[in-house]
Amino acid sequence: MTDALDPADMREQYRTKELTAADLAPDPIGQFASWFKETAASPAIHEPNAMVVSTATPDGRPSSRTVLLKHYDDAGFVFFTNYGSRKGTELTANPQVALLFPWHPLARQVLVTGRAVRTGREETAAYFRTRPHGSQLGAWASEQSSVIASREELLTRYEELAARYPASEQVPVPPEWGGFRVVPETVEFWQGHENRLHDRLRYVRDGESWRVERLAP
Ligand SMILES: Cc1cc2nc3c(=O)[nH]c(=O)nc-3n(C[C@H](O)[C@H](O)[C@H](O)COP(=O)(O)O)c2cc1C
Q1: In ligand 1, which atom is closest to the CA atom of 55?
Q2: 152: left (phi > 0), else alpha (psi -120 to 50), else beta?
Q3: pTM for the whole thing?
Q4: In 3D, which of 93, 84, 27 has the Cα closest to residue 60?
Q5: Is the separation of the CB atoms in 80 and 123 below 8 Å?
Q6: Which of ligand 1's atoms lies nearest the C-alpha of 63?
Q7: Which residue puts its alpha carbon closest to atom 11 of ligand 1?
Q8: What's the 35 CA to ligand 1 centre distance in angstroms?
Q9: Which terminus of the chain is less hemmed in, N or C, by CB atoms within 10 Å?
Q10: Residue pLDDT, tens place only, 162-189
Q11: How far apart are CA 155 and CA 160, in angstroms?
């Protein structure tokens, strides 16, 4: 370990403009839209729609993984996955969920907490049809999160499916595959500043509207 890199020596000073409640959109989705646009325009950020989804078992054992945001609007944030996966089974048993958008090169992060609900089959099918043929087959080929004997097993399954559904044919939506919509209860916009005096503004759902509170960094 003598030449190991020591993370304790790594320090960044964030130089950004301050963020006040007056700068924010009236609702968190509008604010997210504005930051998401800025993030997508930044060459420093690859896959601005990549987010960390945290779930937990009913007895509180947490787990996290990255997924891609595929849609958002006033109803919430949507991603697609396998319902039989670890996250799928955890969300089915316990819909409490957290999302994290790690936009580090901009000294920003967005944190969402809420409840996950499954998207309808129509919405799932509409999205599935937009996926490339190979990804459609991949969704069938992988029983996500189960233990497999080898990579060969996965490739063999994929080849079998490719023979069954040639590129000219419509691939049906796998029954265990679909979307989750995260209906937000809180959405925090975090922006880094010098001397660790960061801005943290959190929207909290208040009936039909939202209130904004500032949190200590
Ligand atoms: C950049 C990136 C994007 C990903 N997007 C998705 C996605 O949209 N849906 C998905 O099910 N898994 C996605 N994955 C894979 C997940 O991180 C994870 O390995 C998989 O969903 C199984 O997670 P689970 O066993 O915790 O359920 C992505 C991984 C990375 C690194």
Answers
A1: 26
A2: alpha
A3: 0.95
A4: 93
A5: no
A6: 26
A7: 81
A8: 23
A9: N
A10: 999 999 998 999 999 999 999 999 999 9
A11: 9
Q: Is 145 within any annotated ligand binding site?
A: yes
Instruction: Give the dihedral sign, CA 125/129/130/132.
Output: positive
Residue 196 bears catalytic tag? yes
Q: Up-side HSE of residue 3: CA atoms within 13 Å toward CB? A: 0
The CATH H-level (homologous superfamily) assignment of domain 14-129+175-214 is: Electron Transport, Fmn-binding Protein; Chain A (2.30.110.10)
* 85 annotated to bind ligand: no
- pLDDT given for residue 12 in this prediction: 83
- Reported as type and span, the H/E element at residue 200 is strand 199-206
CA 63 to centroid of ligand 1, rounded, Å: 12
Q: Which two tokens stand for residue 87?
A: 């996250």
Mean pLDDT of 72-87: 98
Annotated binding residue 20: no
- Tokens at 38, concatenated: 């800025």
Catalytic residue among 11, 15, 61, 196: 196
According to CATH, where is 2.30.110.10 located in the chain?
14-129+175-214
- Whose CA is closest to atom 19 on ligand 1? 65
Look at the chain and count its residues.
217
